[in-house]
């Protein structure tokens, strides 16, 4: 636990060690039953999901006032939280044993190897 003071916002930072699966403790379950960080606790108000936290009043002030610039900032936040970040979550890494087994089995086929993304003419290596 760490108490910090930025220019105008004081807050307490509580780290949740995902490698030790601290997101599954009973205490954290009360904050976010989806077992994901980040979570913002403001008195008795609790909100999870970085996009929703961004839109909460205090952080909303960090967004540009110009509606076009604001839209571009929200676009970046949405792309990260909806399209990029979900692919890196611990819940989807190193799982899907059946798909992994099929992939390992197919890898012995020359046709399968030849069709791999990195072997395509337009692959960016
Ligand atoms: N869309 C959510 C995603 C939250 C998320 O996936 N958090 C990751 C860490 S960046 C997490 O808590 N992972 C724990 C797990 O996968 O068990 C957000 O933007 O807050």
Automatic annotation (TrEMBL):
Ranges for domain GST N-terminal: 1-65
Residues in the signal sequence: none
PROSITE patterns, per the entry: GST_NTER
InterPro entries: Glutathione_S-Trfase_N, Thioredoxin-like_sf
Highest taxon above the source species: Eukaryota
Name by which UniProt lists this protein: GST N-terminal domain-containing protein
Organism: Eucalyptus globulus (Tasmanian blue gum)
């Amino acid at each position: 636990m760490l108490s910090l003071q930025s220019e105008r916002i004081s807050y307490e930072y509580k780290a949740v060690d995902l490698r030790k699966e601290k997101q599954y403790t009973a205490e954290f379950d009360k904050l976010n039953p989806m077992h994901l960080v980040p979570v913002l606790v403001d008195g008795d108000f609790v909100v999870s999901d970085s996009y929703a936290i961004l839109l909460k009043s205090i952080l909303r002030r960090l967004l540009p006032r110009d509606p076009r610039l604001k839209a571009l900032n929200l676009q970046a936040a949405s792309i990260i939280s909806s399209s990029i970040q979900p692919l890196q979550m611990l819940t989807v890494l190193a799982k899907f044993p059946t798909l992994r087994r099929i992939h390992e089995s197919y890898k012995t086929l020359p046709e399968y190897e030849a069709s791999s993304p990195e072997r395509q003419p337009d692959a960016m290596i």
